[in-house]
Amino acid sequence: MAIGGLRSGRPSGQGLPCLRLSLALSLSLSLSLSLWFGRRPARASSSNLSAVQPSETPKTRATEMSGKPKLHYTNGRGRMESIRWLLAAAGVEFDEEFLETKGQLDKLKQGSLLFQQVPMVEMDGVKMVQTRAILQYIAGKYNLYGKDLQERLWIDMYVGGIMDLMELIIVYPFLKPEEKGDRVALIAQRATTRYFPVFEKVLKDHGQDFLVGNRLSLADVQLLEAILLVEEKVPNALTEFPLLQGFKARISNIPTIKKFLAPGSKKKPIPDNNYVETVLSIFSK
């Protein structure tokens, strides 16, 4: 039997250096191959994870966080509700610290609020403010923000339109009684002639289950929230939009969203007079 070109047996003094060189080269080659091929599966695994739907791995993602996000806002919908929706859709558990007095808000303003405004979310070591920035961060972190720049553009455009519609509804509880009838009419008109037709056409044109990239995104979560808000004021709002009816049923049954829509979740109810009075007392000048 030969090793490295030498016959077995006790090597001669002349063959010993060759044997050592051969063994060194073999070990070096083996180590190089091990290091090279050992890296490649790791890169492939990372790539594969990026394609997983958010609803498929909520527990995994939740455990990757450095503690639960903490939401600072009133105990009601307002501008925080969309953030609650998105975290819930991503399968992320969160804590809430409710503002109940003006003093609590004043204390937050002393170093915790960049622009002296809520909502504020403590997450990943950052005190985040500005609703859209918070939503975009969460969407990006949990694979709900498209796969490339162009998909993110479409998501942002859709979300911008949806938020314009939702703005009409968010302020509704704070209107004077004589103003509310006209506001409901405006909500119905804008929803059924400006916004819902756009999304009905999007679903018709691409024939897919989701608005962008055929996967769940921030835009889908926001649209479902907006549909349900509109239906609270205009129950028949989707009558002329069969594809949006299917979209509503489909997105509502995603496990994490279905859980959020169930009784006992952190989803907030329709604002009542007590909530309105609390908000006015906290944010009064």
TrEMBL record:
Q: Which UniProt keywords apply?
A: Transferase
Record-listed E.C. numbers: 2.5.1.18
Which segments constitute the GST N-terminal domain? 67-146
Annotated GST C-terminal domain residues: 148-270
Q: Where is the composition biased (Polar residues)?
A: 47-57
- Keyword Hydrolase part of the UniProt annotation: no
* Region named Disordered: 47-73
Q: Enzyme class, one word?
A: transferase
- What's one GO MF term for it? glutathione transferase activity
Which SUPFAM superfamilies has this protein been placed in? GST C-terminal domain-like (SSF47616), Thioredoxin-like (SSF52833)
Q: Which InterPro entries match?
A: Glutathione-S-Trfase_C-like (IPR010987), Glutathione-S-Trfase_C_sf (IPR036282), Glutathione_S-Trfase (IPR040079), Glutathione_S-Trfase_N (IPR004045), GST_alpha (IPR003080), GST_C (IPR004046), GST_superfamily (IPR050213), Thioredoxin-like_sf (IPR036249)
Family of this protein: Belongs to the GST superfamily. Alpha family.
Q: What is this protein called?
A: glutathione transferase
Q: Which organism is it from?
A: Ornithorhynchus anatinus (Duckbill platypus)
